[in-house]
Give the backbone structure.
Amino acid sequence: MKAITYSRTGDTSVLDFVDRDVAEPGPGEVRVKVVVSGVNPTDWKNRSGGSGDIAFDEVVPNQDGAGIIDAAGPGVEGLAVGDRVWLYLSQYQRPTGTAQEYTVVLAEHVVRLPENVSFDVGASLGVPAMTAHRALTVSEDGPSRLAPGALRGKTVLVAGGAGAVGHAAIQLARWAGATVVTTVSGPEKGALASAAGAHHVVNYTAGDAVAEIRAVAPDGVDLIVEVAPAQNAELNIAVASTRASIAIYANNGGDSITLDVRPNMVSNIRYQFVLLYTVGVAALDAAAEDVNTAAGAGVLGVGEDAGLPLHRFPLADTAAAHAAVENNTVGKVLIDVR
């Protein structure tokens, strides 16, 4: 089979297009014939060495993907050969991701894809949608699960609504009944956020963002899904309601945050950092189930019309796909494996 591998960390030149043997699934594992592989920032950061040296002699990159179960190992229940599925955290603490024609993954990270949901959507769920789910379910006064009505009466602010996580957060929050406000850096990204379902779009480069957000939410926003905490610290405290939660899933704009103690204390603001790798099994299982339900309900669409343009590459051009994500291409980068 064809696969992309790397044996050392570095830039995209470390990626090789090779032939590998098809592996057999062991206990609790399934083998998936990959149709589409999704690329996320975590994939190029792992490849470049941002997570430290690699722990294996050879690694196949990419955490997310979608395809068809080809074989199942002993002890696998609830999944069968022929099932259409989506995958998440495929490469976490393992050498085999989805940038290959067949991948062997833990069955617990494999979810049946609803029949009405495309492989493109399936490959776009994983990291972005599950991160968004976690960010929307960490509030002290909010739900731990998402479903229609779960966020009714809440106002959610999504920073960077044109990004993949922001896009999923808008879709999930609106599905759950929230009023959704998002900030963007320009009209083109604003159009994408509107297409994703945001009720109110604020261009933070023009006008008074705090005033615009407060006009929508006079009592403040209840949940903030934050991609750039260093840049947005002052704005967040200015628009947050009492007992609001600020869920931080990225460090765009800087690695350090300066917070004023008094206003945060007075409002009982909760800061929650979010990284899928360490949220725990219960949170992952809840996110996978709710995200799958939302996808089956037609909520998590991708493509230009849904607010998330797709950028496609063949497997042999995985290096270009990684470069596109690393260079902040707006939209979702997918690799057509088959």
Observations:
- The mean pLDDT is 96.
- The chain is about 30% helix and 25% strand.
